[in-house]
Amino acid sequence: MHISEGILPFNWAAFWYVVTIPFVLLGMRKLQKAAKDDLSFKPLVGLITAVVFIISCMPIPVPTAGTCSHPCGTAISAILLTPFVSVVVASVALLIQALFLSHGGITTLGANIMSMGIMGSFTGYLVFKLLRSMNINLAISGFFAGLLADWATYLATSVELSLGIRGDSPFFPLFWKILLAFVPTQLPLGILEGAITSGMIILLYKKRPDLLIRMRVITVKEVEA
Amino acid sequence: MNRRKIIAFGSFLVLINCSMPLFAAGAEKWTGVDESVVEKYAKEHGREKRKSFIDTDQGDLLLFVFLLAGVLGGFTAGYNWKVLISEKPADSGMNRE
User: Fold this and answer.
1) Least buried of A11, A88, A99, B39, by fewest C-beta within 10 Å?
2) Domain span at residue B63?
């Protein structure tokens, strides 16, 4: 989903920066506050940032399409750290990738934060909370949060790219063309992202349920049950 | 969902993915979607990728940078995991709430 350097025209690149900056600033404030309240928050942010950074630049071969793509990791990040802090985590990962790994770009950083950071995080978080409110178990909620966060990221990328490159041509034909081009790769990769998200939540539930309680992912009653 | 169902679902996914190379026999190369979708459609509409401000995409330099990023990322993740897991929940005193 990384939109490379120079692909978006200046006005669209600037627009996505303007949209994303408030989310990043709010996320940084929430991160500072949470780190003051709970000392185990910082190692958790460190762990999740490293995970998001690694898996969002790790090309995974998808045999169905003969191409490679990567998961995003923003669902697990948003579930554990809240979506605003997850936007900061994704921004850090995307900035390092743009600077040193030729993945994405500085001019397109705003657009990439919008798709992976904001769309991925908020979709993952809201899907997880919705499913949990319906008493669906942790593993399944985590799976669908990861799956839909991944797909939402690529949906947002399709919108950004169509708006940026269409020129005078109509939006929707190009949008559908780009979205459908992502499908063979992202359909299976979304499933993988769901499995990763679900697996990480279950692992933390087994190793450190108290941490999940503190992060308001589960309640004390659920652990005692 | 019990353990059997999870194992069955996981096996189903593995089976599906293992059988997919049969259908993707014509695939020529493993390009990333950033290239095969994003850059392809952008080029068709007259927008081309520019070189990064710090251009590491030269020879084996990108390979080195990726390896370095993987090592540093892996170390950071492992170190923080150790800090989180070795912390004893009952008597850590880390929670100030």
Assistant:
1) A11
2) 56-88
Closest alpha carbon to A89 in A78, A100, A103: A78
* Residue A152 belongs to some domain of the structure: yes
Counts of helices then strands in chain A (DSSP H, E): 10, 2
pLDDT means per 10 residues, chain A with 225 residues, are 92 97 97 90 93 92 87 95 97 95 93 97 97 94 97 97 93 95 92 95 91 89 78
Size of interface A-B (CB pairs under 8 A): 180
Express each pLDDT in B4-56 by its tens digit.
777 777 777 666 655 555 544 444 578 889 888 999 999 999 999 998 888 88
pLDDT at A214: 87
Domains contained in chain A, number:
1
**Number of folded domains that form chain B:** 1
- B2 within some domain: no
Cα of B58 to nearest chain A Cα, Å: 10
pLDDT for the residue B87: 67
- Confidence (pTM): 0.88
Q: Is residue A1 part of a domain?
A: no
pLDDT tens column, A90-145: 999 999 999 999 899 999 999 999 999 999 999 999 999 999 999 999 999 999 99
Residue B21 lies in a domain: no
Measure in Å the smallest separation between the Cα of B69 and chain A Cα atoms: 8
Residue A4 lies in a domain: no
| Structural domain includes residue B75 | yes
Buried b (16+ CB within 10 A) or exposed e, B59-89: eeebeebbeebeeebeebbeebbebbeebee
Contact A66 B41 (CB under 8 A): no
Chain A residues with CB-CB distance to B94 below 8 A:
38-40
- CATH number where A24 lies: 1.10.1760.20
ipTM for the complex shown: 0.87
The answer to whether position A103 is within a domain reads: yes
Comparing CB atoms, the residue among A70, A167, A208 nearest residue B84 is A208
What's the domain range around A48?
A: 10-220
